[in-house]
UniProtKB/TrEMBL annotation:
Keywords, sorted A to Z: Hydrolase, Signal
Keyword Metal-binding: no
Organism: Paenactinomyces guangxiensis
Protein name: Poly-gamma-glutamate hydrolase family protein
Keyword Acyltransferase in record: no
GO molecular function: hydrolase activity
Signal peptide residue numbers: 1-26
A Pfam family this chain is assigned to: Gamma_PGA_hydro
């Protein structure tokens, strides 16, 4: 019998008086990275810094440098030496970096999309309005990780907003923080007042990044279910998950992850074939997706309990990557 660990937690914060800072959002100058790259000079107007440590955690600041000041340093602190790091940093003169802001639901710089897709956990650091407040707005669809991080921050006397305004919620599936292999990440919006405090007080900076790192570590201690992960880069043909070894599966199990073409102008079709112990094809699940549209969830509905093996087929034969997990 399969067992799934269900964890119910709650975070209770008492705030004597609280009001959201007024927020005004200017329209982005560029709709996506392709438009930005055609008009801005990489290395001069902006830089992209990445570091991959073969970790399952990626920390991002997609509005780093002068775009949302302080977020690059905070992301670097959270990543430390062991988590993957992605930074998109504005380098233009003061007052001009807002031109480089691409909203999280449109942010499609290829390296960022791929790093998010490969990760189990994504923590995306942003800057919010509010010069006179020191507040963290917790967003994203990984509610379990979000709550643990919030609790760890509260223990260090950081103020967590009891309610996150819609513009900071980070719940859109196309938000870069949610485009990982579990379709659920964390978005942290820090007010300008808090970012300034962390910049000027090293001990508070250390408290902050340590609390977030403790939250990430604590989340690993409580997996919800068994997952067999698989990663395929430059995938053009077919392969067997786990070399064709059998899994005991039933109709409650599913495949969850991301598939994307390596060429941002392509669309790719990936098929998952389920075979029984007698090598009979009993089920197929297929999805066609263009770049950044490749979130996949294939439920094995109707599959009788038993032993099966799963084949992945790239029917389009275009170079792609597939980062996913069999949840069983």
């Amino acid at each position: 019998m399969k067992k799934q660990l269900m964890i119910i937690t709650s975070l209770c914060l008492t705030v004597s008086s609280f009001c959201f800072p007024s927020v005004s959002f200017a329209a982005d100058k560029y709709e996506n990275y392709e438009e930005l790259a055609a008009n801005e000079q990489i290395g001069e107007d902006y830089v992209i810094r990445t570091r991959s440590n073969s970790s399952n955690v990626t920390v991002m600041a997609i509005h780093g440098g002068g775009i949302e000041p302080g977020t690059s340093k905070i992301a670097e602190g959270i990543a430390g030496d062991n988590y993957n790091l992605y930074l998109f940093e504005g380098k233009k003169p003061a007052g001009e970096n807002r031109d480089l802001h691409i909203t999280s639901t449109h942010f499609d710089e290829p390296a960022a999309v791929k790093m998010a897709a490969r990760a189990h956990k994504v923590v995306s650091v942003h800057g919010a309005a509010g010069v006179d407040t020191q507040i963290v707005y917790m967003g994203g669809n990984n509610h379990y990780l979000k709550e643990i991080i919030a609790r760890k921050l509260a223990e260090k006397n950081f103020e967590i907003a009891p309610t996150t305004p819609p513009e900071y919620a980070g719940t859109n599936p196309k938000n870069i923080c949610n485009m990982n292999r579990t379709h659920a990440g964390v978005q942290m919006e820090l007010t300008r007042g808090l970012r300034d405090e962390l910049s000027s007080k090293p001990e508070r900076f250390e408290d902050f990044v340590t609390a977030v790192r403790q939250g990430i570590s604590a989340a690993y201690a409580n997996p919800y279910e068994r997952v067999f992960d698989f990663n395929y880069d430059n995938f053009t043909s077919s392969t067997w998950i786990n070399g064709g070894k059998l899994f005991y599966l039933d109709q409650s199990d599913y495949i969850l992850g991301v598939q994307n073409p390596n060429n941002t102008n392509d669309s790719v079709t990936i098929r998952f074939n389920v075979y029984d112990q007698n090598n009979r094809l009993v089920m197929s699940r297929t999805k066609t997706s263009s770049f950044r549209e490749g979130l996949i969830k294939h439920q094995l509905t109707g599959l009788p309990s038993g032993y099966y093996k799963i084949q992945i087929v790239n029917t389009s034969k275009l170079s792609s990557y597939v980062y996913a997990g069999l949840h069983y």
